[in-house]
């Protein structure tokens, strides 16, 4: 296992300390221009996502996911522990400047998200029963005529479902409950796997229903708690913003501890965690997009807003809370692991904030586990057939348990590795199909 871990560290060190960072930023900038700065359509996207009309203007009867259900499923796979624990580790290892680069990744990544979702919607397949199937693997196979590349991407998506979407969340649950309530990790992992098994028995409808309920409630609770924290720490808000901006472009560490960082560390951690949280360019959001009904341009804009909510809003406010808390109470994070800095900041709330955040992390993780299970199912359907989905779900639930027993370091190394491979494969195909992308 040590050789495997060392291999992951070496590969990630090469990818994320230069080539992949530049490629990711270039991709987001390119598609921002290619789509005519689609970010300016954000108000329209937000209106469509909550429109009383199902599926962004199409008839109410549909066999696909609705506009809000598609958005909720996408947010379920991206919103949660990546924002809370991922941002915490980003600031711990990259300093305050990581918050800025994470925010930039989300702002620019909206264009890439629109481009990949549009292609999956435009070139999705319709089954005889009126349901849809699609995603990057179908686009690669049918538009680029490269079936081997399509299968390679599908295998990456399947591996990511087990590693990125599954292990990170289950490990976050066991670590959080152990830290806050001293609960043993083994039975927590077993219980979590059983809960996921029960929910998955409801299939895609069950997944969409649970995600539609969990995401708005827990997202609203987390945002409200962060706003209360920022109000309590308002005297440090200006200093925190200044520190985030200056640290983002500092080429040498001028202070120590959490407040010390350099440009490269900040960019590496901020961009990597930004990609993990919003998944813009990975191709996961297009899988949910292809299974929704509606106009391709409108639905792509709706799915694009997931990147805004996930990274621009949630990651931005989480980073501010962490930096403000550090300035307000020096030494607050002593004794906490890098993934628990947000928990430490929430101890400053006057109403057992760390305990409530722990519960929120668990519910966020459940939603993310369900969202990524859905993505993995679509990979299995493409690679094999629908009959194998039952076996996949069984293996997925087993991985929920095994992932809960892994070390957090191994979990993040696996996530960065598969995120990088998925991003490169998907984005190269996006560039090859760039002329088929229509502006909204």
Q: Ranges with pLDDT <50 over ≥5 residues?
A: 52-64, 253-257
CATH top level assignment: Mainly Alpha
Report the order of strands and helices.
HHHHHHEEHHHHHHHHHHHH
Mean of residue pLDDT values: 82
Q: In order across it, which strands form the biggest sheet? A: 1-2
Relevant terms:
2 strands, Amino acid/polyamine transporter I, about 450 residues, about 75% helix
Written overview of the protein:
By secondary structure, the chain is an all-alpha fold. It has one domain: Amino acid/polyamine transporter I (Up-down Bundle), CATH 1.20.1740. The protein is built from 18 helices and two strands. It has helices at residues 2-16, 19-34, 42-49, 67-78, 81-94, 97-122, 136-143, 147-181, 185-200, 203-232, 237-248, 263-278, 284-290, 296-328, 341-346, 353-383, 389-404, 408-432; strands at residues 125-126, 132-133. It has a two-stranded antiparallel ribbon. Helix 6 runs antiparallel to helix 14 and helix 16 packs antiparallel against helix 17. It is globular and about 60 Å long. It starts with a helix and ends in an 8-residue tail after the last helix.
């Amino acid at each position: 296992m040590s050789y495997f871990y060392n291999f992951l560290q070496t590969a990630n060190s090469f990818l994320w300390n230069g080539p992949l960072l530049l490629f990711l930023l270039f991709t987001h900038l390119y598609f921002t221009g290619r789509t005519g700065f689609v970010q300016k359509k954000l108000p329209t996207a937000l209106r469509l996502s909550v429109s009383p009309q199902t599926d962004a203007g199409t008839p109410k009867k549909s066999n696909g996911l609705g506009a809000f259900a598609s958005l909720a499923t996408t947010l379920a796979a991206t919103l949660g522990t990546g924002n809370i624990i991922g941002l915490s580790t980003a600031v711990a290892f990259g300093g305050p400047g990581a918050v800025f680069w994470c925010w930039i990744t989300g702002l620019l990544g909206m264009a890439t998200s629109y481009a990949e979702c549009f292609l999956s919607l435009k070139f999705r397949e319709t089954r005889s029963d009126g349901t849809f199937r699609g995603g990057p693997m179908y686009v690669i196979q049918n538009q680029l005529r490269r079936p081997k590349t399509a299968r390679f991407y599908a295998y990456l998506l399947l591996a990511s479902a087990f590693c990125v979407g599954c292990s990170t969340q289950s490990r976050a649950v066991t670590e959080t409950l152990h830290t806050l309530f001293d609960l043993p990790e083994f039975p927590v992992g077993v219980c979590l796997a059983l809960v996921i098994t029960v929910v998955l028995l409801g299939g895609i409808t069950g997944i969409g229903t649970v995600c539609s309920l969990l995401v708005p409630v827990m997202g609203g609770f987390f945002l409200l708690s962060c706003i209360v924290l920022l109000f309590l720490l308002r005297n440090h808000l200006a200093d925190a913003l200044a520190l985030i901006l200056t640290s983002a472009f500092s080429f040498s560490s001028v202070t120590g501890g959490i407040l010390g960082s350099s440009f490269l560390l900040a960019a590496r951690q901020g961009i990597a965690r930004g990609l993990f949280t919003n998944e813009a360019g990975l191709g996961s959001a297009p899988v949910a997009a292809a299974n929704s009904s509606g106009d391709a341009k409108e639905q792509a804009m709706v799915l694009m807003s997931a990147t805004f909510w996930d990274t621009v809003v949630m990651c931005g406010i989480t980073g501010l809370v962490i930096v403000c808390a550090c300035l307000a109470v020096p030494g607050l994070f002593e004794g906490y692991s890098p993934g628990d800095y947000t928990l430490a900041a929430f101890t400053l709330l006057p109403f057992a904030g760390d305990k409530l955040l722990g519960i929120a992390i668990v519910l966020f993780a459940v939603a993310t586990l369900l969202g990524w299970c859905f993505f993995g199912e679509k990979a299995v359907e493409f690679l094999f057939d629908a009959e194998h989905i039952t076996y996949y779900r069984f293996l997925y639930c087993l991985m929920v348990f095994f992932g809960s027993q892994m070390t957090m370091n191994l979990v993040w190394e696996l996530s960065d590795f598969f995120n990088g491979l998925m991003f490169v494969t998907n984005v190269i195909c996006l560039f090859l199909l760039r002329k088929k992308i229509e502006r909204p």
